[in-house]
């Protein structure tokens, strides 16, 4: 039976970083993944150009029940260390808004970099190799796969969460943690778009594709970035960020910049709920412009005209709705 110092389940960003670090420290490392290609989430990130880090990344940017972990992790390896690695591989990059760094060419550059670093550390990567069972024995872990049984002294599970199942994501890590009696913080969606109720979706269908600069607030949390109307609801950096702070039923508001007009949550008219969450017991959110109960055409145009070309403002639905 092949034996390794470390077996890592998951050939994504975290798994490959763990593997290359251990391999370059002299450990015998095996990476197993059920997917046919490595790092699929990296490939689709940043619109295919991979937003690989942020210049202003700090412990305060992370949500965690153990904030000390974030501090110690970033003290050992910061964004500047990763930028140096990217530059050693000759990958051209550029900064966008708020310190976000993207590849000039393709996210594949980052994937190739990680795989090259794994190869430099002698890491063995086996794709299309799902793990069927994991057992802990006296001398370590035994992992059964369709390609045989592998053994290791240490086991790392880096399979991520269940987001984007279309590319193979699943809740495997939660099941494995339960198998070994590890405590799991109740999972909840984060960095997700919000979807409209059917009525609001129909009313605002004409705005799909329109983006505005906005400050989105939920409680004490607030983010000022782009807000994007989609064919399903709201997305864009501001919405993705605030979704991690939004408990179902709490008020969510957005102030369009540069005007101070506020889009308030009005439970009587329609709801906005995260795509991966079940409907909340109480209505969660809707948009109302200015003082009206529902955005009529003139008010809606006034709301978005400072941030959008008039050709986009004209796409706001012409039919008004009182929602009494």
What does this 3D model show about the protein?
Helices cover 26% and strands 26% of the residues. With 324 residues, it is of the alpha+beta class. β7 and β8 form a beta hairpin. α1 packs parallel to α5. The protein is globular, with a radius of gyration of 23 Å.
Note the overall shape. Answer: globular
Number of strands: 17
User: Would you tell me the overall average pLDDT?
Assistant: 82
What Rg, in angstroms, do the CA atoms define? Answer: 23 Å
Give the termini separation.
Answer: 70 Å
For the sheet with most strands, the description reads:
8 strands, antiparallel
Broad structural category: alpha+beta
Q: From N to C, what is the helix and strand string?
A: EHEHEHHEEHEEEEHEHEEEHEEEEHH
The share of residues in extended strands comes to 25-35%
The number of helices is 10
What is the helical fraction, as a range of percent? Answer: 25-40%
The low-confidence runs, each spanning 5 or more residues with pLDDT under 50, are 258-304, 306-324
Q: How do the strands of the widest beta sheet line up side by side?
A: 16-10-13-12-11-14-15-17
Main features:
8-stranded antiparallel beta sheet; alpha+beta; 26% helix; globular; disordered C terminus; 6-stranded mixed beta sheet; 324 residues
Detail the topology: elements first, then pairings.
Blueprint: E1 3-9, H1 13-24, E2 29-32, H2 40-44, E3 51-54, H3 67-76, H4 79-88, E4 93-95, E5 100-103, H5 108-120, E6 124-126, E7 131-137, E8 140-145, E9 148-157, H6 172-179, E10 194-196, H7 198-203, E11 211-218, E12 221-229, E13 233-235, H8 237-243, E14 253-256, E15 262-264, E16 272-274, E17 288-289, H9 297-304, H10 310-313
Parallel strand pairs: 1-2, 1-9, 2-6
Antiparallel strand pairs: 3-5, 4-5, 7-8, 8-9, 10-13, 10-16, 11-12, 11-14, 12-13, 14-15, 15-17
